[in-house]
TrEMBL record:
InterPro entries: aa-tRNA-synt_IIb, aa-tRNA-synth_II, aa-tRNA-synth_II/BPL/LPL, Anticodon-bd, Anticodon-bd_dom_sf, Gly-tRNA_synthase/POLG2, Gly_tRNA_ligase_bac, GlyRS-like_core. PANTHER family: DNA POLYMERASE SUBUNIT GAMMA-2, MITOCHONDRIAL (PTHR10745:SF8), GLYCYL-TRNA SYNTHETASE/DNA POLYMERASE SUBUNIT GAMMA-2 (PTHR10745). HAMAP family: Gly_tRNA_synth_B (MF_00253_B). NCBIfam families: glyS_dimeric, PRK04173.1. GO terms for molecular function: ATP binding; bis(5'-nucleosyl)-tetraphosphatase (asymmetrical) activity; glycine-tRNA ligase activity. Catalyzes the attachment of glycine to tRNA(Gly). It comes from Muribaculum intestinale. Its EC number is 6.1.1.14. CDD domains: GlyRS-like_core, GlyRS_anticodon. One of its GO terms (biological process) is glycyl-tRNA aminoacylation. It catalyses: tRNA(Gly) + glycine + ATP = glycyl-tRNA(Gly) + AMP + diphosphate. This is Glycine--tRNA ligase. The lineage of its organism: Bacteria, Pseudomonadati, Bacteroidota, Bacteroidia, Bacteroidales.
Length: 514
């Protein structure tokens, strides 16, 4: 666990040092849980968004995009349930004066039981070697069974309390499990209270005439209130989808783990409108489609898993998360939800406008059911960064830090370097840059030794480096170096575009999806 925490700290430090992510307002000592994306970070982030957007809008002829406003009529949030029910259960420690999410404290306690089980298994594996049967050990070892019984009993109580929205029961679990405040080390807890996560502000020219509006806590509602506009103007027939990428805002109390949980974040959401009765079939379909999208990046299939929801939101009849193995455990990066017709029905009720879909095949009007796929851009960014980071020991005692970013997502696709800064080599290198830069981000690098330049490009995840030397001026060939293998080969300048483009194009990912 400590090793994983150290690794995560290195990744956070690397992200700042190489221009991926900076603490926001840093010269003013920062702003808690708010971050800025640097010159390499914004390119990586934009490539993730491009991959998602194209996979939705290019590969599906029945999905289109919109960009709705962040400010929306406040009644929208009343209709959606956010004004009354968008809450986190919070508990304070009286000694440290720190506030925590009660559900997170309990989830961490469950994780401690899981860790104890894994430690027992790891110890036994070390003791018994190749003959060790991990599954049999889990089923028969008394200590493992004891930990598992406690874990399962806690999990059952926790799920019940969350389903019943029973704040007293949540507090009682914290007391019974003797959960201590990580700062003060005491168990001096307050009652559990609900806290609404929406940011609010005022819109209007005078204080008296101002209207209370909210910064949207999700992008989905902008799609729902526009779905009929899109359907009519685009002459869409059910089933069809509407995709959107945009900022959302939540006043998170427990915002941590770098960019995993922030107060200002970005979502990529697609709402897919279907006939009532067909929603669970489409839910299964989108569940498989979205996992395939993630796996196409090649970050490791074993790093993904589904987590089906035990507690369904009031609007859902099926829900699952796609979780990714971060350095701090498996965490949600995407949610797929069958939202039924809740949102559209609520907006029809609160607006007083008829927003039903007329189905020409059935010759009737109805309120469509909705399948939602919702992915956090920042969490996706973090999963790519964490799984790509590696510290390598090389032959001869040398070391390098390399980001094995999927080439299509890498901020810089190619760096062109003159071997020396004279003899016409810089001019030739710039000529190559000027030829390649129209199709993919290409950098010119001339400072430091060629080895240091390679290391710098490895650290930001550049898939290819091109070295221009004296032989280039004679036969128009260059050295093409590949990031992961560090293999170098001599290629013709006119072949560079083809050799690089096929690997770094977003199309190379999209073709895997069919």
């Amino acid at each position: 666990m400590a090793q994983q925490e150290d690794q995560f700290k290195k990744i956070v430090s690397h992200a700042k040092e190489y221009g991926f992510v900076f603490p926001s307002s840093e010269i003013y000592d920062g702003l808690s849980a708010v971050y800025d994306y640097g010159q390499n970070g914004v390119e990586l982030k934009n490539n993730i968004k491009r991959y998602w957007w194209d996979s939705m809008t290019l590969l599906h002829d029945n999905i289109v995009g919109i960009d709705s406003a962040i400010f929306m009529h406040p009644t929208i949030w009343k209709a959606s349930g956010h004004v009354d029910a968008f809450n986190d259960p919070l508990i304070d420690n009286k000694d440290s004066k720190k506030r925590y999410r009660a559900d997170v404290l309990i989830e961490e306690q469950i994780a401690k039981y899981d860790d104890k089980i894994e430690k027992e298994v790891a110890k036994a594996a070390k003791r018994f070697g190749d003959s060790f049967d991990a599954e049999l050990f889990r089923q028969t070892n008394p200590r493992v069974l004891e930990h598992k019984a406690k874990r399962d009993a806690l999990h059952e109580r926790f799920a019940q309390a969350m389903n019943d929205n029973d704040l007293d029961a949540l507090r009682q679990i914290i007391i019974d499990e003797e959960i201590v405040d990580p700062i003060s080390g005491t168990k001096n807890w307050t009652e559990v209270r609900q806290f609404n996560l929406m940011f609010r502000t005022e819109m209007g020219s005078t204080a008296d005439g101002a209207m209370t509006v909210y910064l949207r806590p999700e992008t989905a509602q902008g799609i729902f209130v526009n779905y009929l506009n899109v359907q009519k103007t685009g002459r869409m027939r059910i089933p069809f989808g509407i995709a959107q990428i945009g900022k959302a805002f939540r006043n998170e109390i427990v915002a941590r783990q770098f960019i995993f949980r922030m107060r200002e974040f970005e979502q990529m959401e697609m709402q897919f409108f279907v006939r009532p009765g067909q929603e669970l079939e489409w839910f299964k379909n989108w569940k498989e489609t979205r996992l395939k999208w993630h796996k196409a990046l090649g970050l490791g299939d074993a790093k993904y898993r589904y987590h089906d929801h035990e507690k369904l939101a009031h609007y859902a009849n099926a829900a699952t998360d796609i979780e990714f193995e971060m350095p701090f455990g498996f965490k949600e990066v995407e949610g797929i939800h069958s939202r039924t017709n809740f949102d559209l029905s609520q907006h029809e009720k609160f607006s007083g406008k008829k927003i039903q879909y007329f189905d020409p095949e059935l010759n009737e009007s109805y309120t469509p059911y909705v399948i939602e796929t919702s992915i956090g851009v920042d969490r996706m960014f973090l999963s790519v960064l964490c799984s790509s980071y590696e510290e390598q020991e090389l032959e001869g005692g040398d070391k390098r830090v390399v980001l094995h970013l999927p080439p299509a997502l890498a901020p810089v696709k190619c760096a062109v370097m003159p071997l020396v800064r004279k003899d016409g080599l810089p001019e030739k290198a710039r000529e190559i840059v000027n030829d390649l830069k129209f199709d993919f981000p290409t950098h010119y690098e001339e400072k430091d030794s060629i080895g240091k330049r390679y290391r710098r490009q490895d650290a930001i995840g550049t898939p290819f480096c091109v070295t221009v030397d004296h032989q280039t001026l004679e036969d128009n060939t260059v050295t093409l170096r590949e990031r992961d293998s560090m293999e170098q080969k001599r290629v013709k300048v006119e072949d560079l575009h083809r050799l690089i483009h096929d690997t770094v194009s977003i199309n190379s990912l999209l073709r895997k999806l069919g």
